[in-house]
Write the structure tokens for this entry.
Amino acid sequence: MILYLHGFDATSPGNHDKMRQLQFIDDDVRLISYSTQHPKNDMQYLLNEVSKQIASSDDEAPLILGVGLGGFWAERIGFLNGIKSVLINPNLKPEDNMAEHIDRPEEYADIANKCVKGFRALNAGKALCILARQDDVNDNAKVESTLKEYYSIEWDEDQKHKFVSLASQLQLIKAFKAS
């Protein structure tokens, strides 16, 4: 089972395309949609929904994958549920770079402060981070600097922030899920 978390642009047709591509790895790909506007509510909803999805599956190695803002959530929700995560161009500081787009950006900082201290060290090796060199939204050099001590980092030379095609990354994701 792969749980897919969209980014801030929840209605993008690219989300459906990525989910179809992920079906080459696992035929059980499930979208978990959330508001993107209310971080504390999103956190509670995502924790509950992911727990429910894991309980309803017999997959012994479920995976959560998120793009952009979904990567922010995939890292934390994956950690809290004890499952591996794939972070694609994760937005690590939405409170800073999305303040004009969300109702309560300060809630992201509050969530980060309330998260388990040093959670990345506890989660080391349980996430794979895929970064686009051509990302037109994130500064992925900063993302790499923040995450490289804890997770494998893979660079894609062609994709932009929304990461339209996962084709060249599917075998990598499949191997990570199976490891």
